[in-house]
Write a structure and sequence with these properties.
Blueprint lengths: L4 H8 L5 H12 L1 H4 L4 H8 L3 H10 L5 H17 L16 H22 L2 H13 L3 E5 L2 H13 L6 E3 L3 H10 L5 E5 L6 H12 L4 E4 L8 H8 L7 H13 L29
Parallel strand pairs: 1-2, 1-3, 3-4
Helix pairs in contact: 10-11
Length: 280
């Protein structure tokens, strides 16, 4: 067995398909960054589908994408220290991986906090605080993982204010948005900020003049051109449309919701078009 995941990947590189080689090349060039990416972000950054990433993990003997990130973390730490085991802070083959997982989880949270601080815009932050502190009701919305963040936000702020309300059901979110007034605020958590559900709710909120605070990985600026120039290189697919939609939501030029885009993974039982005819 190879000393590290990257060594193993090097040995098996010629057995990979064309798309898998494309993914492998991206991982070689960004091994540290990949450890902190979601599977969707890695798919966008590398230009392959999520289905390709899943097949790649299995071909490399990993049970899933989470194990890929752990394997990369081990390789990264071993490369810096030149050792494995207790001295390097990595578990040996005989040791339990739990301590390594805990360390990586801690590092991940610290990295997220640093990135948030680097991207924080003080003026926008102050405006958000003003809106939240003066609102009659703050409706905390989210879908998927964003719903968990919305629930936690409402729970934390409920200790200092009774105005924060969490709504989990998407239909009830639409109902509360339809009943909201300009004295209320909608605080929406969404990874991309461009899903059909987000657009429909924010469309309705804008029509009713309800202030919107959208917490998303894709940050916005005063105009979409600035946003695209600053962050466009991070999202090679779906970026322009998503950022334009976010910009138009805030500037009042929003049309009807567009057809929601898929997550890039081929439906079960169907061949991934990206892999059709793909040979090693």
């Amino acid at each position: 067995m190879a000393e590290s995941f990257l060594d193993s990947l090097t040995e098996r590189y010629n057995t990979l398909t064309r798309s898998e080689k494309k993914l492998a090349g991206h991982i070689f060039a960004n091994a540290t960054k990949v450890q902190y990416l979601s599977i969707n972000s890695l798919a966008e950054d590398s230009g392959v589908s999520q289905a390709t990433i899943t097949r790649f993990c299995r071909k490399m003997g990993l049970s899933g994408y989470h194990n890929l990130k752990i394997a990369l973390a081990k390789s990264d730490r071993a490369a810096h220290s030149g050792t494995t085991g207790p001295e390097s802070g990595l578990p040996s083959e005989e040791e339990d991986d739990l301590s390594a997982v805990c360390r990586r989880l801690c590092d991940s949270y610290q990295s997220s906090l640093r990135e948030t601080m680097e991207q924080l815009q003080p003026d926008s932050f102050r405006r958000a605080v003003t809106l939240l502190s003066g609102a009659k009701h703050v409706y905390c919305f989210g879908q998927g993982a964003g719903m968990v963040m919305a629930l936690e936000t409402a729970a934390l702020f409920s200790m200092v204010s009774q105005s924060f309300v969490h709504i989990s059901d998407s239909h009830l979110q639409m109902v509360h948005t339809a009943l909201a007034t300009p004295e209320d605020v909608i605080l929406f958590f969404s990874y991309s900020g461009s899903t059909k559900e987000v657009q429909e709710i924010l469309n309705l909120a804008k029509e009713r003049g309800v202030p919107i605070l959208l917490v998303s990985e894709r940050l916005g600026h005063e105009n979409v051109e600035t946003t695209l120039q600053t962050y466009g290189h991070l999202y090679p697919t779906q970026t322009t449309e998503a950022l334009e939609r976010m910009d138009s939501m805030m500037t009042g030029d929003l049309g009807g919701p567009r057809k929601a885009q898929g997550n890039g993974a081929a439906p079960e039982g169907e061949e991934d078009p990206e892999e059709a005819g793909d040979l090693p």
